[in-house]
């Protein structure tokens, strides 16, 4: 059972929801929490555990072999990302732009662009009673989040039983990293806030999930600020609202100390319990 | 000598485009022949990635020794331009092509 916690807008509370929901689920189940926001993972600020595994992750990039190259230009014609450029008598490769698609390498008539591995980040696995926590982190300077997200998903799929509840803390936005993080899940929770900005980006996120054909529900965070447009929009479009987490200074204070929220605030626990029930229902 | 400009048009009175990778046009002035050649780069807006290297490569093909632009190229484009041996002058993003050429001639532009 795979659940992604996503959002259009950043800073709506994906990590707050992911970590608190994980902890609540873990009171009765085995849960896997995976932080797929590999550019800036932060679930680990709230979920601790013993480090049980650490893997260096690599991506494949082409390396130009000058001696056999005939400068035919096929490689740059075939690269959709302009990661391979022919400049007179030389071929330049830009590893940060490379999507590891192998087109330049496979289509090179003289095999002058063999693929070599390049380190892109690390994956760490922690264990804390019922919680397995997995965090992937891109190295500084790496621009492509997608390959690391894909390899992290592969790791989780291999390491855990299909039935285990898995929560994926996803990157924000609606671009490639989000697609990679959500395309394999069974259900997506879209976190938003009841503001015009929140609604604007929620609509984009909903459009994205419709295009992917994913079932989804909405959690409204900081409920009480802004206006009623998000609620009205969800109602008008038959989008289920799974929970409304109230806006409160207490939450911000607990968060700023790296603490879980639901254990201290019963009104939050009740809302999370509703989400938990919804997920366990989906599972059965 | 050929001098390239990042521009929003193809004449002396056209505005400069302050961007490098996503410039609308590349305008090359040959001061020996007193003539312009230009490249319409507007299709670049459909490219999500790699605009800098792509525009750099086009610029390389046009053969200028000098580039006059606004903000200056990003890291990837700068790598290409450096390998291509093109000198880059920046700070002309808010001028017309003619004004940019004149301040370049007066050595008033900053080298990148």
Strand fraction band of chain B?
Answer: 15-25%
Assign the CATH architecture of chain B.
2-Layer Sandwich
What is the overall pLDDT average of chain A?
A: 96
Q: What is the SS-derived class of chain B?
A: alpha/beta
Query: Which class of the largest domain in chain A in CATH terms?
Result: Alpha Beta
The tally of beta strands of chain B, per DSSP, is 6
Tell me the strand order in the biggest sheet of chain B: 3-2-1-4-5-6
The low-confidence parts of chain A are: none
Task: Tell me the helix content of chain B.
Answer: 25-40%
The shape of chain B, in one word, is globular
SSE order of chain B, as H and E? EEEHEHEHE
Percent of residues in β-strands of chain A: 25-35%
Task: Explain this structure.
- The complex is a heterodimer of chains A (284) and B (112).
- Chain A contains nine helices and eleven strands.
- Chain A is of the alpha/beta class.
- Chain A has two domains: 2-57 and 127-283, P-loop containing nucleotide triphosphate hydrolases (Rossmann fold), CATH 3.40.50; 64-113, Alpha-Beta Plaits, CATH 3.30.70.
- In chain A, helix 6 links the parallel strand 9 (187-192) and strand 10 (216-223).
- The longest helix of chain A is centred in the C-terminal third of the chain and has 18 residues, at 266-283.
- Chain A is elongated.
- Chain B is α/β, with parallel strands linked by helices and 112 residues long.
- Chain B has a single domain (2-111), classed as Nucleotidyltransferase, domain 5 (2-Layer Sandwich), CATH 3.30.420.
- In chain B, strands 3-2-1-4-5-6 form a six-stranded mixed sheet, with helices on both faces.
Features:
heterodimer; A: 284 residues; alpha/beta; Rossmann fold; 2 domains; nine-stranded mixed beta sheet; 27% strand; elongated; B: 112 residues; Nucleotidyltransferase, domain 5; 6 strands; 28% helix
């Amino acid at each position: 059972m795979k659940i992604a916690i996503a959002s259009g807008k950043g800073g709506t509370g994906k990590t707050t929801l992911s970590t608190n929901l994980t902890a609540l689920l873990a009171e009765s189940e085995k849960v896997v929490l995976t932080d797929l926001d590999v550019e800036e993972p932060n679930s680990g600020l709230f979920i601790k555990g013993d480090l049980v595994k650490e893997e260096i992750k690599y991506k494949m990039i082409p390396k130009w072999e000058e001696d056999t190259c005939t400068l035919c230009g096929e490689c740059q014609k075939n690269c959709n990302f302009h990661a391979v450029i022919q400049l007179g008598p030389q071929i330049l490769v830009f590893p940060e732009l490379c999507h590891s698609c192998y087109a330049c390498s496979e289509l090179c008539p003289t095999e002058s662009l063999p693929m070599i591995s390049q380190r892109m980040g690390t994956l760490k696995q922690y264990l804390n009673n019922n919680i397995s926590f997995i965090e992937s982190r891109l190295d500084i300077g790496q621009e492509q989040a997608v390959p690391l997200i894909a390899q992290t998903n592969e790791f989780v799929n291999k390491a855990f039983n299909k039935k285990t509840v898995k929560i994926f803390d996803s990157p924000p936005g609606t671009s490639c990293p989000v697609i990679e993080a959500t395309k394999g899940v069974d259900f997506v929770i879209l976190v938003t806030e009841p503001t015009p900005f929140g609604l604007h980006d929620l609509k984009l996120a909903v459009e994205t999930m419709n295009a992917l054909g994913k079932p989804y529900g909405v959690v409204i965070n900081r409920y009480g600020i802004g206006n009623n447009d998000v609620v009205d929009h969800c109602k008008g479009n038959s989008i289920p609202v799974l929970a409304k987490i109230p806006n409160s200074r207490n939450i911000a204070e607990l968060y700023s100390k790296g603490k879980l929220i639901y254990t201290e605030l019963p009104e939050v626990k009740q809302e999370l319990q509703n989400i938990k029930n919804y997920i366990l229902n989906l599972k059965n | 000598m050929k001098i390239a400009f990042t521009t929003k048009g193809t004449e002396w009175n056209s505005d400069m485009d302050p961007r490098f990778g996503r410039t609308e046009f590349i305008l090359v002035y040959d001061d020996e022949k007193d003539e312009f050649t230009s490249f319409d780069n507007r299709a670049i807006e459909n490219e999500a990635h790699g605009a800098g290297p792509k525009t750099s490569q086009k610029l390389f093909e046009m053969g200028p020794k000098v580039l006059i632009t606004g903000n200056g190229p990003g890291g990837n484009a700068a790598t290409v331009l450096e390998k291509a041996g093109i000198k880059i002058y920046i700070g002309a993003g808010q001028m017309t092509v003619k004004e940019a050429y004149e301040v370049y001639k007066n050595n008033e532009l900053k080298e990148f």
